[in-house]
Amino acid sequence: MMLCYRQDLEKLHQFRHALMDRYEMKDLGEINWFLGIRIIRDRQQRKLWLSQDSYIEKITKTFHLEDRTPPHMPTNNLELMAYNGKASPQDIYRYQRKVSSLLYATTISRPDVARTANRLSEFLTNPSPDHQHAID
Q: What sign does the CA torsion over 40, 76, 101, 4 have?
């Protein structure tokens, strides 16, 4: 369980002690990771960042994209057309895995690429080589 508070630290301590009296639990201190998401704080400026850098690094390695230069901005104006040919089952599977990995990141911490990911997902059943290239 993760407890978050804004102002009244005394009420938080009372609540935490009441929970600990009733349930077996321990206080692990300030949170740095939660469900694979790194939590970065700047207490002086009262800012909080959620980072999935370890997940992005993992999928980059999974799909052998380490040598690629990341785009500076998400591609929001993809002009991809339906494929008139027929993608192989292997190409379809690989494309679907890439798009699903991208969609997971968009729902957690990268809403800026959600439109692009949704556009790419329109071609899950028959991706063209252009679609494959767009997601690499």
A: positive
In this prediction, residue 37 carries a pLDDT of 87
Q: What pLDDT shows up at residue 72?
A: 55
- Return the C-alpha torsion angle 62, 65, 71, 73, nearest 10: -10
Cα dihedral sign for 114, 118, 120, 124? positive
Query: Which stretches of 1-136 are DSSP H helices?
Result: 9-22, 53-62, 89-108, 114-121, 129-135
- pLDDT confidence of residue 76: 55
Residue 52 has a pLDDT of 87
User: Token digits for 99?
Assistant: 């798009």
